UniProtKB/TrEMBL annotation:
<dbReference type="Pfam" id="PF04055">
    <property type="entry name" value="Radical_SAM"/>
</dbReference>
<dbReference type="InterPro" id="IPR058240">
    <property type="entry name" value="rSAM_sf"/>
</dbReference>
<comment type="function">
    <text>Probably acts as a heme chaperone, transferring heme to an unknown acceptor. Binds one molecule of heme per monomer, possibly covalently. Binds 1 [4Fe-4S] cluster. The cluster is coordinated with 3 cysteines and an exchangeable S-adenosyl-L-methionine.</text>
</comment>
<protein>
    <recommendedName>
        <fullName>Heme chaperone HemW</fullName>
    </recommendedName>
</protein>
<dbReference type="InterPro" id="IPR004559">
    <property type="entry name" value="HemW-like"/>
</dbReference>
<keyword id="KW-0004">4Fe-4S</keyword>
<dbReference type="InterPro" id="IPR034505">
    <property type="entry name" value="Coproporphyrinogen-III_oxidase"/>
</dbReference>
<keyword id="KW-0408">Iron</keyword>
<dbReference type="InterPro" id="IPR007197">
    <property type="entry name" value="rSAM"/>
</dbReference>
<keyword id="KW-0349">Heme</keyword>
<keyword id="KW-0411">Iron-sulfur</keyword>
<dbReference type="InterPro" id="IPR006638">
    <property type="entry name" value="Elp3/MiaA/NifB-like_rSAM"/>
</dbReference>
<keyword id="KW-0143">Chaperone</keyword>
<keyword id="KW-0560">Oxidoreductase</keyword>
<comment type="similarity">
    <text>Belongs to the anaerobic coproporphyrinogen-III oxidase family. HemW subfamily.</text>
</comment>
<keyword id="KW-0479">Metal-binding</keyword>
<dbReference type="InterPro" id="IPR013785">
    <property type="entry name" value="Aldolase_TIM"/>
</dbReference>
Length: 408
C-alpha cells in the first residue's frame, strides 16, 4: 500500500455508495482487507503507509488500534446496507501492513470476530495475516489459528545476512524455518515473500534465498523485484553512491532463476510474481483483486472497491481514528470508474494471470496484436490458437509492454 494517496472526488461523510455499486453485487465475491500500519523499524526500501510505535499516540496507538478498526468494520457494514448492496459472506480476509503481528494475537482475533459478526464468513474461507519471522511465537500462531486464521505470509525477503542488512530487515535467516515450523504446528498454510535485485545481491545470494525458502516446504512463494521508490532511505543511499543501483537485466536473470527452481520443486506460477504448490494454495484474496471482485479496506490509507467505485482512507492514523470517533467515513476521496477505465484494469490485471484473457474479449486493436505477440514469443501459441492469451516466460518479463499492445 503506497503511502501517496491518489486524487479523486470528495467522498461522502456517510460512506454511502452510488447505485452502480449494488448492481450485480450478488454475483461478485466479497473480501476484507485490514491494514495494520505498525512496524518495529521502517525498512529502507519501503514506501508503504507505516509507522513505528514511537511515532504515534492517543487513539492511533498500537494499544487502541483494534478498537478503532472494529469501529470501521461497524461503519462499513452500515454503509453497505444503506447503499443497497446485498449481504454477502466474506470469502477472503487479509491482514497486511506494516506488520500485523506486532499487535497481540487477541487484537487481530477481535478484528476478525467483528467482521464475521457483521458479514458472516463463507465455508472454507481464506483468512491470511502477514508477519515478520521475528514477530510471532508458537503461542501467538496457535491463538491466530484458533481464532479462524488459515494462512500466514512471512516476509522472508532473503536468506543472506548482508542482503537483509541492506533492506533493514530485523530477523536473522535462521528464524524463518523456525517460524514456518511453528505455523505448520498450528495448522496454518504458509507463504514466503522474497525480494530479488537488492543492491549488492549476487546471483549466488539469490539462489541461496530460493533454496532456503524451498527447504522450508511452503505452500506458496511470492517473488518481487525490488523497486526503488523516491523518498525512501534506499533511494537516498543509491543517489549518494553508498550502495549500487539496480539493473533490469539482473532482475530478469533472477526472475528466470526463480521460475526454474520453483518449477523444479513442483510449484506453478499463477500470477507473474506468485507461485503455488497446488491450485488450492493460490492466494484467493489477491486473485479477487486481480479479477475485479469487491473488497472493503479497513485502516489508514486502505483502499476499497465495490462495483466500480473505488475509495481510499485518510493516510494518517490519528486523522483516521478521529474521523471514526466523530462517526464519519474515514475516506479521503473516491473515484467512480468509467467503462474504459474498468476495461483497462481488467486487461492489465488479467494478463498477468497464468489463465490469461479470452482473446475474443479484447478490443479490435488487442486482437490484431496477437499475431505479433506470438511471433515475438511473448504469448503461448497453443493457448492463442485455442482462443486464450497467456504469457510465456519472456512475456512475463515484459508483461507491461504486452498489456500496452492489448489496449486501445
Amino acid at each position: 500500500m503506497p503511502s501517496t494517496l491518489p486524487e479523486g472526488e470528495k467522498a461522502p461523510a456517510d460512506g454511502v455508495l452510488p447505485a452502480q455499486a449494488a448492481a450485480g453485487a450478488a454475483e461478485r465475491g466479497f473480501g476484507l482487507y485490514a491494514h495494520i500500519p505498525f512496524c518495529a523499524v521502517r525498512c529502507g526500501y519501503c514506501d508503504f503507509n507505516t509507522y513505528t510505535a514511537k511515532e504515534l499516540g492517543g487513539g492511533a496507538s498500537q494499544a487502541a488500534y483494534a478498537g478503532t478498526a472494529v469501529a470501521e468494520v461497524e461503519f462499513a457494514a452500515a454503509a453497505l446496507r444503506a447503499s443497497g448492496v446485498p449481504e454477502r459472506k466474506l470469502q477472503t480476509v487479509f491482514f497486511g501492513g506494516g506488520t500485523p503481528t506486532l499487535l497481540p494475537a487477541a487484537d487481530l482475533a477481535a478484528m476478525l470476530k467483528a467482521a464475521v459478526a457483521h458479514w458472516g464468513i463463507a465455508e472454507g474461507a481464506e483468512v491470511t495475516t502477514e508477519a515478520n519471522p521475528d514477530s510471532v511465537t508458537p503461542e501467538s500462531l496457535q491463538e491466530l489459528a484458533a481464532a479462524g486464521f488459515t494462512r500466514v505470509s512471512f516476509g522472508m525477503q532473503s536468506a543472506v545476512p548482508h542482503v537483509l542488512r541492506v533492506l533493514d530487515r530485523t530477523h536473522q535467516p535462521e528464524r524463518v524455518p523456525q517460524a514456518v515450523a511453528w505455523a505448520r504446528a498450528a495448522g496454518l498454510q504458509v507463504s514466503l515473500d522474497l525480494i530479488y535485485g537488492t543492491p549488492g545481491e549476487s546471483a549466488a545470494d539469490w539462489q541461496v534465498s530460493l533454496e532456503t525458502a524451498l527447504a522450508c516446504e511452503p505452500d506458496h512463494v511470492s517473488a518481487y523485484a525490488l523497486i526503488i521508490e523516491s523518498g525512501t532511505k534506499l533511494a537516498a543511499q543509491i543517489r549518494r553512491g553508498e550502495v549500487p543501483g539496480i539493473d533490469d537485466d539482473d532482475h530478469a536473470e533472477k526472475y528466470a532463476t526463480a521460475d526454474r527452481l520453483l518449477g523444479e520443486a513442483g510449484f506453478t506460477w499463477y500470477e507473474v510474481s506468485n507461485w503455488a504448490r497446488t491450485p488450492a494454495d493460490e492466494c484467493r484474496h489477491n486473485l479477487a483483486y486481480w479479477r475485479g471482485d469487491d473488497w472493503w479496506g479497513i485502516g489508514p490509507g486502505a483502499h476499497s472497491h465495490v462495483g466500480g467505485v473505488r475509495w481510499w482512507n485518510v493516510k494518517h492514523p490519528i486523522a483516521y481514528a478521529q474521523r471514526l470517533r466523530d462517526g464519519l467515513s474515514p475516506a479521503a476521496g473516491r473515484e467512480i470508474l468509467d467503462a474504459s477505465t474498468r476495461e483497462l484494469e481488467r486487461v492489465m490485471l488479467a494478463a498477468r494471470l497464468a489463465v490469461g484473457i479470452p482473446i475474443a474479449s479484447l478490443a479490435d486493436g488487442g486482437k490484431r496484436a496477437v499475431a505479433g505477440l506470438i511471433a515475438r514469443e511473448l504469448i503461448q501459441p497453443a493457448a492463442a490458437f485455442a482462443g486464450q492469451l497467456a504469457l510465456t516466460l519472456k512475456g512475463r518479463l515484459l508483461a507491461d509492454a504486452v498489456v500496452r499492445e492489448l489496449l486501445p
